[in-house]
Amino acid sequence: MFTGLIHGMGLVRRREERAGGARLVIDPGDWCEKPGLGDSIAVNGCCLTVADVGPHRELFFDVIPQTLSRTTLGRLGPGRKVNLEASATPATALGGHFVQGHVDGVGRVTRVIRQGEYRVVVAVPADLMPYMVPRGSVAVEGVSLTLAEVDPQAGTFDIALIPTTLEKTNLSDLDVGDEVNLEADVIAKTVVHYLAHYAGVRG
């Protein structure tokens, strides 16, 4: 469980292809957390397990083929910045929203407005649009955000980014055509699933 409040930005140092997927080696930079072997870390919104910790605090993650194909982690290479968040504890302040670290799909940036209010428009896979609720929550690359606008006909949503978010996350690097990990709000998913599969049966 996570909150979508990014703790730090890391840098991909290496990507090692393996028969069972890939191993990502990430330099956590000045992130103050000190993850240990077996800890859960959200990397661009994907919940991964720390497989090893290097002598210079570099973090090793083993990523299976399904995760590589269903998320943006499959396109990560050396030099890419990634958002990092340690898993929540009972003492964690829930300043964002409940984020599971289970990516629902990959969206694509269709527009970036940098003048005035900084906005990013994201095209969403059709099967995820029912979970996009105006003024609701969404995690983009692991960042907890409010849906500023939702256009079901166009299949897009807008997010407005404040200076702190632009400074503390990799969302400031987004440009048209970039892919982003999306996780819909778990409450929205639960409601839509119930209505689609059970509400009609019970009248």
Biggest sheet: strands side by side, in what order?
1-2-5-4-3-6
Helix content: 10-25%
CATH class of the largest domain: Mainly Beta
Q: Can you tell me the CATH topology of the largest domain? A: Elongation Factor Tu (Ef-tu), domain 3
CATH A-level architecture of the largest domain: Beta Barrel
- Sheet with the most strands, sense and barrel status: 6 strands, antiparallel, barrel
* Total number of domains: 2
Number of helices: 3
Query: What percentage of the residues does DSSP assign to strands (E)?
Result: 35-45%
Mean of residue pLDDT values: 94
Q: How many DSSP E strands?
A: 12
Structure description:
The chain is mainly beta. The chain folds into 2 domains: 8-86, Beta Barrel (Elongation Factor Tu (Ef-tu), domain 3), CATH 2.40.30.20; 105-198, Elongation Factor Tu (Ef-tu), domain 3 (Beta Barrel), CATH 2.40.30. It contains 3 helices and 12 strands. The strands form 2 sheets. A 6-stranded antiparallel barrel has the order 1-2-5-4-3-6. It starts with 7 loop residues before the first strand and ends with a helix.
